[in-house]
Write a structure and sequence with these properties.
Elements (H helix, E strand, L loop, with lengths): L11 E7 L5 E7 L6 E7 L3 E3 L5 E3 L2 H11 L7 H16 L5 E3 H15 L1 H11 L5 H14 L17
Parallel strand pairs: 4-6
Antiparallel strand pairs: 1-2, 2-3, 4-5
Helix pairs in contact: 1-2, 1-4, 2-3, 3-4, 4-5
């Protein structure tokens, strides 16, 4: 690590700490030449390989923007979207891979989105998985119902009215 003050080609690590979210490491360094101290922030970068073969840096904001469209008109806040993007990024980082296929990212969005809002999940899945027919929607809805455990449509019961 070059000293930003005197450009000496070496430095000594004085202190290392992980950041609050655990995604980066803050290192306090000292230059052996001029004695001045400076801080570096180290993060592991994720790259996305798109279908065209182009590689670009991972962006939480792209996840939020893509999911926001599916959540339009649904009771989902910006905080919910930010938390979903954080969950997706954390899941992707646990794979240990520095380069991720765009398809893998889309698949990793589906689970947290299903937990957040099932209608938004169906919207996102219909575009992402290219639903072609009503049968595709029916299969996705059947899978959602099965994940609830009963497989039957949920009925809404009328509130009881006391007779006077």
């Amino acid at each position: 690590m070059h000293c930003p003050f005197c450009r000496h080609s070496d430095s000594r690590v004085v202190d290392s700490r992980t950041s609050d979210d655990g995604a980066s490491i803050r290192r306090r360094r000292q230059c052996p030449e001029c004695g001045r101290r400076f801080t570096t922030l180290e993060t592991a970068s994720l790259s996305v390989v798109k279908r065209s073969g182009v590689t670009e840096p991972f962006s939480r904001e792209k996840i939020v923007n893509g999911v926001r469209k599916a959540c339009q008109g649904r009771p989902v806040s910006e905080d919910d979207l930010a938390l979903l993007a954080q969950r997706v990024e954390e899941a992707l980082r646990t794979t240990g891979s520095a380069e991720l296929d765009a398809h893998e990212i889309g698949l990793s969005i589906l689970g947290p989105l299903r937990d957040l809002d099932e209608v938004a999940y169906l919207r996102f899945a219909s575009v992402y998985q290219a639903f072609d027919s009503l049968e595709d929607f029916e299969a996705a809805i059947t899978a959602l119902r099965a994940s609830h455990g009963d497989g039957a449509p949920h009925e809404t019961s009328e509130p009881a009215v006391d007779e006077v």
